[in-house]
Each structure stands twice: as structure tokens, then as C-alpha cells.
Design a protein that fits this description.
Helix content: 40-55%
Number of helices: 13
Order of helices and strands: HHEHEHHEHHEHEHEHEHHH
Strand content: 5-15%
Distance between the termini: 45 Å
Number of strands: 7
Structural class: alpha/beta
Length: about 375
């Protein structure tokens, strides 16, 4: 039973926020069997595709949209071209996205396994990469990035007790940080690149970027401030740039509207663009969807957000020209200039010191 309990703990780390309130022996066996099945599948993939002695693992939250899969596939190929001495693999950190992708929600079924499976596969006999680089594909260094750090810490500390300790003592671990890790360098760089791409739209009207954000209770490292900092950096180019979120207090679409109107923008075009690595469910639905609560009156909830209404429909009904023609449905990984910033973080990680979990990887401002 000790082994079964151990595997259940591992599955909790792998699958994210899941709860097992009561388990029969059959439940325990299923957890163990699934764990073994998934690990064997990843082991076989790594062994069959291994070409180099070093490896890069890209860690994304995940998605169930073909456009997102295409963006991920393009990113993997771009990494292979830019880092010829490394094998490159992609992982999802979201258990929900992994399960829905395997079930074929919206698209043909595909398997995207959680990071611990890949890390364990990199350490298996017959593989044992000499250098492992984990690159976070998160936008801000918040809750999801914390999970990436913890995956590596568990691996390095041999949390499952099934990795060769001598190998762990000699393998080099590196961590590539999120897109907006640094409050000055990264924020200003991303702002410059976005302005280079969308300056024409900003001359025609508002360009509103929709990020995800963390709820206040999950605002790890106070990472939400990056959205505010990015808006400030963008507005040095044009007062028509705004950055809101779907989950950050006081920075919903309602707050974006308030800031627009405070700047005297009462009408005109509103272009909407997802500020996320991919254009997935949030981009297609929360930003560009047709859901609309206008007939019930736009009543904000206790947090100040108007629910069940997309950004497109909200700004349209607020008197702006905001429709399908003003939706810029591209994830950030689809923009080579922005993708290059993530890749520069990977290069910095490779050229830097071996991984320090507790200091430089965790932002302080």
C-alpha cells in the first residue's frame, strides 16, 4: 500500500489540483496503472526520438484548439532550428487540457503529457541527457510558473525515489523564465515588439490586449503587476493601447473601458488581441465569442466584472466598433518577434549558471 500511496502523490503533482477523498483498492490500482501507462508512453517517445545528449522541454498550460496546436508545433520546430544540439519536446501542465486533448475535444485526439513524465523519461536508462533545459511558455511569472519550478524541484530532489541519484548529482538543470519575467527589460521589449506589429491599428483605434491574470489569492510573486507595467510601456507609444485580463481584480474589460473613457475615448474602433501564448478557449470565447448578457443589462458581479459576455460584445454594446473584423486572433507564440523573446530566455538559461531554485528565477517586483 505504501507504493500505491506514493504513486497517488505523484499523480497529484502531475495532474494539478485533483482531490481523492476516498479510494478503494480498485481506485488505487487504476491510478498506478495509468501512471505506468503514461510513463511508458513518454519513455518510448523519448527513446525513439533521442538524437542529442541535451534536451529542451517546453512547458505550456495547454489547450484544446487546433490553432493552438499549430502554434505549439511551429514553436517546437522553431526551437529545433535554433537549438540544433538539443532535442525538443512539449508538455502541458494542465490536467484538464491533457484529458480533453486526449479525448479529442474540438480536434483530433492528441496526447500531451505532464512535465514529470518527461523529466523522468529524460533520466531513464538508455537516455540520461547530460543537460535538461525546461522553458516556461507562461506569459507572466505567476501561479502556473510556480508549478513549473516545483516540477523541476521535485525531479532534482528525486521526490519519487526512482531516479539514479548519481545521475541527478551530475545532470545539469536549467530553467528558461516566462515572457514577462523582468519588469523592465522584458516588459519594454515586448511593448516595443507589439507596437511594431500593431502601430497601424493603434492609429485607427484602441488595441486592447486580453491577458489571463491570476485571482488575488493566487497572484504568486505578485505577477499581475506585469499587465499594468506592460500597458504603461505600450502607452509610451500610443494612448490607444490597453491591457486587461479575464482574472485579475480591477483589470477586467470593465476596467479597461473605464481607463479608455478617462482618456476621452468614447467611440471608435476597438481591436482585441489575446495576450496569451496561444489563441485558445479564452481567445475564441472570452474575447471573440458571441456570448452576450446585454438583454439582461450589464450588471457587474461583486468583483466588478460583467460575466457571460465577451470582450467583442461588451465593447460593441458600449458603442464602439468592435466586431469580427477587429478581432486579432493570434496567440503570442504565433508572432515570431514575440516568440523570439521566449527563445532568448532559453539562450540565457543555457549560457547561465546551473539552476538556482530560490533566487533569480522568482521575481521580486
Amino acid at each position: 500500500m505504501k507504493k500505491i500511496k506514493f504513486l497517488m502523490i505523484a499523480m497529484l503533482a502531475i495532474c494539478g489540483a485533483m482531490s481523492f477523498t476516498a479510494c478503494s483498492d480498485d481506485d488505487d490500482d487504476k491510478v498506478e496503472n495509468n501512471y505506468v501507462i503514461y510513463q511508458n508512453a513518454v519513455n518510448q517517445t523519448v527513446k525513439s526520438q533521442k538524437k542529442n545528449s541535451k534536451v529542451i522541454l517546453l512547458v505550456a498550460f495547454g489547450s484544446t484548439w487546433q490553432q493552438a496546436y499549430d502554434a505549439f508545433d511551429t514553436t517546437v520546430e522553431a526551437y529545433k532550428a535554433a537549438f540544433p544540439g538539443y532535442d525538443v519536446f512539449l508538455s502541458f501542465s494542465s490536467a484538464i487540457c491533457i484529458n480533453r486533448a486526449a479525448a479529442g475535444e474540438n480536434v483530433k485526439p492528441r496526447n500531451f503529457y505532464a512535465p514529470p513524465f518527461w523529466l523522468n523519461a529524460f533520466a531513464q536508462d538508455g537516455v540520461k541527457y547530460s543537460e535538461i533545459v525546461v522553458q516556461s511558455l507562461q506569459v507572466i511569472p505567476g501561479e502556473e510558473y510556480t508549478r513549473v519550478i516545483n516540477y523541476i524541484k521535485d525531479f532534482a530532489n528525486n521526490a519519487n525515489g526512482d531516479i539514479d541519484d548519481k545521475y541527478l548529482a551530475n545532470v545539469t538543470l536549467k530553467l528558461g523564465v516566462p515572457l514577462l519575467q523582468d519588469a523592465e527589460k522584458d516588459v519594454n521589449n515586448v511593448a516595443a515588439q507589439l507596437n511594431g506589429l500593431y502601430a497601424n491599428q493603434a492609429r485607427e483605434g484602441v488595441v486592447a490586449f486580453m491577458g489571463h491574470g491570476n485571482p488575488d489569492s493566487y497572484d504568486t510573486y505578485k505577477a499581475n503587476v506585469r499587465y499594468t507595467q506592460l500597458e504603461e510601456a505600450l502607452q509610451k507609444y500610443s494612448k490607444n493601447y490597453y491591457v486587461g485580463t479575464v482574472d485579475m481584480m480591477e483589470n477586467f474589460k470593465t476596467n479597461v473601458l473605464q481607463r479608455m473613457q478617462a482618456n476621452g475615448i468614447m467611440n471608435g474602433k476597438v481591436f482585441c488581441h489575446p495576450l496569451m501564448s496561444i489563441d485558445g478557449d479564452h481567445g475564441h470565447n472570452d474575447m471573440a465569442g458571441d456570448d452576450d448578457a446585454w438583454n439582461n443589462g450589464y450588471k457587474a458581479n461583486e468583483e466588478g466584472e460583467v460575466e457571460d459576455t465577451s470582450w467583442k460584445m461588451y465593447f460593441h454594446n458600449m458603442g464602439y466598433t468592435c466586431d469580427n473584423s477587429t478581432m486579432i486572433e493570434k496567440g503570442l507564440l504565433e508572432l515570431p518577434a514575440i516568440r523570439q523573446i521566449w527563445m532568448s530566455h532559453t539562450k540565457d538559461a543555457i549560457n547561465g549558471e546551473p539552476l538556482d531554485y530560490y533566487h533569480s528565477k522568482n521575481p521580486e517586483e
